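user: can you give me the structure for this one chain? tokens are fine.
assistant: on it. calling the predictor now.
[tool input]
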Amino acid sequence: MGAGRGFGGGPRSYLTEEEKKNRPKLSKQLLFRILSYLKPYRIQFAFVFAAILISAVIGLFPSLITGKIVDEALVGKNMTLLIKLLILALITLVGSQAIGVLQSYINSFISQRIIFDMKNQMYAHLQQMPHSFYTSEKQGDILTRMESDISGVGNVITNTLTTSVSNLATIIATLVALFSLNWKMALIGIAIIPMTIIPARTVGRTRWKLLTDAQGERDQLNQLVSETLSVSGSMLMKLFTREKSEYERFVSVNDRVTRLTLKEQRSGKWFVMVIGTLTQLGPLLIYFAGGLLIISNHDATLTIGTITAMIALVNRLYGPVNSLLNISVDFTRSLALFSRIFDYYDKEVTIKSKPDAVSPDLSQTNIEFQNVTFTYEQKEPILKDINFFIPSGNMYAIVGPSGAGKSTIVNLMLRLYDVDSGNISINGTDIRDFDLMYLRKNIGVVTQDAYLFNGTIRENLLYAKPDATQAELESACKIANIHDFISSQESGYDTLVGNRGLKLSGGEKQRISIARVALKDPTILILDEATSSLDSISENAIQNALDVVMRGKTSVVIAHRLTTVLSADWILVLKDGVISEQGKHEQLLKENGVYRELFETQFKRVLNNEINNK
């Protein structure tokens, strides 16, 4: 007479205040959208539901057979019948379990395939999102949508949907069997169920509150561990000798987590005892009422076997009833899960290729900005009516104080953002008319912050050209003056670079980044502070290499170093979002304007440092 399953009043049985406040509205459109992900697997679902119905019916047999064993085999002292009934009970039991396993297999297949489909769709969609999405959205939120939310869909399918159908089928089949055996005893047996529900929900709310508080403290604990035991955090802690204070803070938070967890666990013990007592009370009432009817001869059809079967059947009701009572909570959470996922799916891809996008010949790459104005999220434009022309094959340098809009010009050329007004053209074709992938394939970028994936040097280089030969890799690395360093490593080109290239120096990362662009061999080259991470000796070597890479290419260089500026064909001086001056170095110095100020305060200081270090 085991207690019914599922009466934990568990932590997922109640909605938080935030969940109640943000409860999504069920609409026909939302429902059909959810069902669209289930539609490709409708045949598998049909098998699952058929298995559920068959399992619910077969699951009754052991209880009913138990009644016959008592009445016909034991009371009748018929050993042959007893053996037959026991074998039949065993067969139905094994059959029910086998159907359950089959149902579980199909269920897992459906849920994992839907997760597979949704993750593919999400990843493909996020790939197309504009750069502004990644600068404004938290990375943790993106990972949560990709992992936790979509993976939670599997739980929705296996629990909210199929478990609800299974529970409903079990309840209906069990009630039919109970009332078929004896309607009076059936009413007595199910009368105890409400008595188990009330304390379950009351205690469940208390446990949920304690668990929520404990989870909040765990989040704080995880945040503390993540911050202080990361590469940067642990170094900062050591540099400022904060080990003792951070340890004390950890102990304090850990103590609160432990206390709340213990309190939550203790609160459930008495609850389990009460529920266990109540679930045993139902069978005791059936024994009492049944015994009274049999002993007093008030019901000649009632037998000991019937009472035994009914007790077994009543025990089958507890778990499914409690689970269905929480269906509204599960349903709300399921809708919220899908709503969060759909919210990302519905984010507009604002920068994309037009249906009639072109891929023009780029043997000539004249670049022109015409009346370009651009604003980020702030009201004040970062670029205001920008006009300039870069002849094909020329190298233009863009200089200016921090925040002047230099990197924004680069971002607009790559269509990471689109202009608010005006246009940017290459060989007279507006870049918004280009096929987006074709445009970016023809532009190579080396940034100040060289980003490397956590893999080998070879894998990072092949990101530019997956089919590159070893000879091509070595040629690109020789141009970037990094081949000798790579060859000196034990694993050569298969050397691991670590997370974000942390196993390499800044200069080594930058050179690999330059080699990667050299391997790409674009028609237009953009260097955004490309040599800023290098010492003077390395910079000279790299500058010579970049001269080779830039030869014959239209190049745009954002630089703070005088050596880079001096080699430019033309210099654009940017300040407060406008081109305040332009010309060659000597000419701009004579104007005693922004460029002269930059030369005196920035370029000249760097140049003097380089001379002193030689």
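assistant: here you go. Residues 1-12 have pLDDT under 50 and may be disordered. The chain has three domains: 22-182+301-345, 357-442+523-614, 448-521.
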